[in-house]
Specification:
With 207 residues, this protein is an alpha+beta fold. It has 5 helices and 5 strands. The protein has 2 domains: 74 residues, Nucleic acid-binding proteins (OB fold (Dihydrolipoamide Acetyltransferase, E2P)), CATH 2.40.50; 125 residues. The chain is 42% helix and 21% strand. The longest helix is centred in the last third of the chain and has 20 residues.
Length: 207
């Protein structure tokens, strides 16, 4: 097996002394898992960051072993991870996607939606500019895996109503997508929602 494709990194877990197991979402092949040698070296550490856009190459290592992977950076999200709200948004969206999607099942709409969300988080002037995109991505994810019919939030929806929508979707995600296995992932969402709520309290658009 040989796969080469653009991908979004969703999870990176250290494995062995120098390597890591990654999970990356592609448009044509869905979620892919692979072992990357030397992942914790100086060259690959800044590449293997969840949220980064990469070019991935996977080669089969045998029926019972993970494919080996090579990864090249296309676009880095690292500069935004120093900001609390963008970091929380990227961490939640990629963690949710990695924890939810099975390997090898294409979800091209989710790949496009996650790409748009990463761009929105990194380029919108404030969290008010990307929180609606986040809500839309969550609704899309619920629909794509068969657990929801909620439409994307309308553009005229006010901030408090959008926060209430996010609260409702959080309950659906916890109970349907991440039941019994998503405590750590939902912890990322709790941090994100708390930071988004501060925007309304403080009347500030601080990213």
């Amino acid at each position: 097996m040989l796969i080469r494709a653009p991908a979004l990194l969703c999870a990176v877990r250290p494995h062995g002394e120098h390597g890591a197991v990654i999970r990356a979402l592609t448009a044509a092949h869905g979620m892919l898992a692979a072992y990357v040698a030397g992942a914790r070296g100086r060259e690959l550490r800044p590449v293997l960051i969840p949220g980064n856009s990469v070019e991935i190459e996977l080669r089969a290592r045998g029926d019972s072993r993970l494919p080996s992977g090579r990864v090249e950076l296309v676009a880095s999200r690292a500069p935004w991870l120093a900001e609390p709200l963008p970091a929380a948004g990227i961490g939640w969206a990629t963690g949710l996607t990695a924890a939810t999607l099975p390997d090898g099942h294409p979800y091209p709409a989710l790949h496009a939606g996650l790409s748009a969300l990463m761009d929105a988080i990194c380029h919108a002037p404030s969290a008010r500019g990307w929180a609606r995109v986040l809500a839309g991505y969550e609704a899309l994810l619920l629909r794509e895996v068969g657990y929801g019919t909620a439409p994307a939030p309308p553009p005229e929806e006010d901030w408090e109503t959008l926060l209430a929508r996010l609260e409702r979707q959080g309950n659906a995600i916890a109970n349907r997508l991440l039941a019994d296995r998503g405590r750590d992932v939902m912890g990322l969402r709790a941090i994100l929602l708390e930071r988004l709520k501060r925007i309304g309290i403080d009347r500030k658009d601080t990213p």
